[in-house]
Amino acid sequence: MILRLFILLPVFAVVLFLYGAIVNIGYLEENRCRMTYMFEHPQYTRLPVQGNERFPKYGLYAYSEGSLTQRVQQRVFTGAPVLFVPGSGGSYRQVRSLASVALRKGLDNGWQTHLDYFSVDLNEELSGVYGGYLQDQTDFLELCVQEIARLYGSRGRTSRIFIVGHSVGGKLAQAVVGRQGSVVRHVTGIITISAPVDKPVALLDHYHQSFYDRIEQTWRANRSVLVEGEAKSTTGKMPLDGMLFVTVGGGIRDMIVHDGLTSSRYADLHAMTHNIPNVWLSVDHLCAMWCLQFVLVMNRFLFSMVIPQGRGSYGFTEEKHIQREKAVRFLAQPFAGTNVVDDDTAFVHHHPEQEDWIEDIRRSYTERHRAGMDRTRVQMIRIVPDKPAHRFLRVEVINSEQDDWLSACAAIEVYGNSRMCQRAVSLVNYTLPVPSSKFDRFGVLLDTHQLKRWNPSWTHVLVKIPRSFKPVQFSVDVFNPSTREINLTMPHWLDYRGHTILQDASPDDSFYRINVRGMKHTYQTIALDLMAVTCDGIKGTVVVKVHVPWANGYDRYAFHEELNQTTVYIYPPTEKPPSHNDEDVPIQIDVYLTPGCRYRIRYAQSLRVGIARIVQQYLVLLPAHCIALVLLAFKDQLTQTAPDDPVFVVGKLRSSLTKPGPLMMLLATSSLIAKFLTLFKSIPPVEILSTPLVVSVLLHLAALGVLVIATLGLWGAIAFCANFAHKIILRLIALPIPVMSSTFLSCIHKFPLAIAVLLVAIALTACGGVSLLCAAAVYFVLLSKAYEDYLENFVFHTARRIATRLFGAARERTEGEQGSSRQRLRRRRRPENETGDELMVINFHLPLFFLVIMLALLNVPSVITWAKNYHYANTLLPDPSLVPALLVLVCLAVLWQLNTPRNVRGYELLAALLVIVAYVSVLYCQLHVYRLNFAIGIVFLAITVHQIIAPKRREVGEEHEGEDGKGDGNAEEGEHEQIENKRDNN
User: Which residues form the GPI inositol-deacylase transmembrane domain (predicted)?
Assistant: First the structure.
C-alpha cells in the first residue's frame, strides 16, 4: 500500500506540471495591449553591405512607407538612426510597429524631428536554442553598424546609432559593442527588450556558454558595475561607460524569458513594462514588438534624445547624463526623496486674484467636478505637527493640467478673507503617476511631520488645480500610518487557506500598506483579492504597487478599473540574495483604493500561479533530474545479483524506478554534497544550491512520474505495437521495392553493426541529432524483435510443459533420482523463469534506450536547425551534437553486436560509476544542459568497455560436475556448456 501511494506522488507532480504549463500559456493575465496600425503599406528596402558575400543568408533593410520609399531607395537619410535586431526565430519585419509609429510622428511634426529605422535580417535563425549561429550573426551585425555609419558619413554626418535588440538580439547588440574598435564610436546606446542579458534561459550547447563568457569578460574589463547601489571603483573612465545601456522586461506574461533574466549588472536603467508610465501592463515575448502602449513610449523616449545637426539633419545627443535623464523620465518612475531648493525653478508662483484659496479641515474627502472648473483652485492642507493622526498625507488628482500641482509654503500672507502665499516650494519630485487607461492621474504620499522638521516655517501643503473644461477630481486623505499598515507572513508551502485582513474599510480610506515577510523565492505567490462591497454611485478602481527591496527596477503596478472584484498576484521577481537573508525586510504592497467605496481585502497562497512560475523558471532543469533517476534505476537493476552468484540477472526497470530508495538518497545527499563541494575553491560551483528545496523535490517527483509513465507506455508500445513500428520503419526508409525494404529490415535484426555504421555516416554527412533520432527508431525495432522472440519462446516452453505433463509422466518416473538431480542443477545455474533470457535482454537495454531517447531530445534543436538550413548546406556546421552522437553510436554498434548483457564480473564497479554520473548530472548539468550529452556518452563508453574486457563469472559447482558422473555425466556436461554459452551470449 505504501509503494502504491508513493507511485501516486510522481504522477500527481506530473499533473501539476501540466497544469502549470496550461496556466502559463494563456491563463496568467489578460492581454490588454492595443494593436498598432499603419496608414500605408510597409516597404523594406534592402541595402548593400560591404562584406555581405560572407553572409549570403543575412541582409540589412531600411523601413519606409508610401512616397518616402523613394528617399530610401536614393539613400537619403536625414533622421536619427535606429537599428533593430530581431531575436531567436525573429524576422526583420518585426520593426514595423516601432518604425511605423515613428514615421507617422515625424510626418505630424513636419519632418522636423524624425527617426530612420533599419532592421537586420538574420534568416529567422533559432539562435536561442542553437548557439552555432551567434558568431556569424555578431560579425554581420558589426558590418551593418559600419554600413549605416558610412551611409550617414557620405553626407558629411557622424550620427551615432541606437540599437534596439529584442530577445537574443539584445545580447547580439551587447556582443558587437564589446568588440571595441570602430563599432563603439558608432553606437550611442542599446535598449534590450525581453532579452536574457546576464544569464541565458538555457545552455543547450557550449557555443552559448562561450558566447556569454566572452561578453562577460569584455564588459567586465570595459564597463563599471553597480554593486549594492555604488559604482565599482575604477582608476579612470571605462571605455563602455559613455554608452547608454537600458534593459526592459516583459513581466509575468513573458513565459519564454522570465522577468528575473531581463536585468543586467551593467545597465544604466532597468524597467519592466508593467512599471513604465503610460504602459502599466505585462506583455508576452512577441507582444512587446507590437503592443501600442509600449511602442508609443519607446518612440517618445527615442525622440526626446534627438537634436538637430544642421542642414535639415538630426541625430541623437551624445551627452550620457541627458540620455539617462530621458530614460528615467519615460521608462521609470521619477522620484526624489528630498526636496532641494536651488533656484527659482523650484518655486511655484501664485496669483491670488485669479485663484480660489480654500482650506478644508476635514482629514479625508473627495471632490468631483464633472463639468470642469472655471477658476483655478488652490486646496490648502494644514500641516499639523506632533499628532500621529495627521502624519501621512495621500493626495490624488485626475485630469490636472498643472505640472507643479503640489507645493508647500508658509501661509502667512492674507488676501481678502483667506490666508495665502504668493510663492511656494514645488514638491513635484514627490509625485508619481498613477496607472489609468482613461485619465491623467497623479498621486503623492507625504510624511508631513518629516516635511515640518526639514522646513519648520511651512504651514500648508498646496494642491493647485487649474481651470479646465475636462472632468476634474481630487481626493485628500490624512491618516496615522499605523492604522493603515497590515503585516503578513508568507504562509507555509502547504497552507492554501484564505484569510481576511480587512473586513470593511471606511469609504474615506484611500491607502493601505501591506508588509509581507517570509517571501524570498520566486515561486512563492500570494493572491490578493480586493472586493468593492459598496460604492456611492461610482465605479471602483484599484491600483496596487509592489515593491521588492532587493530587486531594483522591478517595482510593479497593477490596476483594475470599473471592477467590483479583482485579484492581484504578489511574488518576488528574483531570489532574495544571501546578503539580505539575515535582514527581515518585507515586500511592500501599497493599495490605492477609490474613495467612496467600501472594500474587503483577502489573501491566500496561490497554488495556480506558484506552479506556473515553477514551470516557467525551472522546467529547463527537468532533463538533468530525469537522467539522474534513470541512472540510479539502472544501477539498481545491475545490483540484483550477488557477487558470488554464477549467473548474472538484470532487474526490471519499472520496479527499480518505483523504489523510493534512490529518490530519497538523491534528495537527502545531493544538497549535502553540494555544500561540501563549495568548501573547495578549485572545484567549479555547483548549480543545485540555487534551487529551493521544495522545487527540487517537485522536480524529482515530476521527473520520476515522467519516467514511470514513459516506461509503461514503452512497454505497451513494445508489446502491442511492434508490428506497427515495423511498418513505420518501412515507411521511413521509403524504399520503393518491398523486397528491398524487407531485406533492409532483416538487416536491422541480423546485422546491427552495419546499421550502426550507416548511422555514423548520417552523423558525419548530415547532423548528429538526426542520427540519434534514427538510432532511437532502430533501437525500438531491436527491442520489439527481442520481445517477439521472448513471446515465441514463452509459447514454446509452455507447450512443452503441457506435453510433458500429458505424455511424459512415464518417462519422468523412469528417470527417477537422476532426472531430479539434473533439474536441481539447472535451477541453480539459471533463473527461475526458464524463458527469462530474452526478457533479461530487454531489461538491460531499456534504460539504455531511454538514455538514447533523452540524448536525441536534447539535440532536437540541432536537428531543427539542420532542417531549416538544409537548402544552404547539407551538413550542419558547427554541430554540437556530433561528438556525443559518434561516441554513443560506436558504443551501440558494439553493444548490439555482442548480444549484451554478458555474464561477466564488474557490474558493481559499473553501478558505482552510474551513481557518480547521476550526482554529477544534478550538481552540474541543470543549467548547463549540454553537459548531459557528455554524461550520457561517458555512461555508454563505460558500459561498452565493461562488456568487452570484463572477465566471465566463475561457475559454482564446476568441481562437483566432474565428480558426479553416474551414467549421465557427459549429457549433463554438454547441457551445462549450452546453458553457459547461452548466458554468455545473452
Answer: 695-943
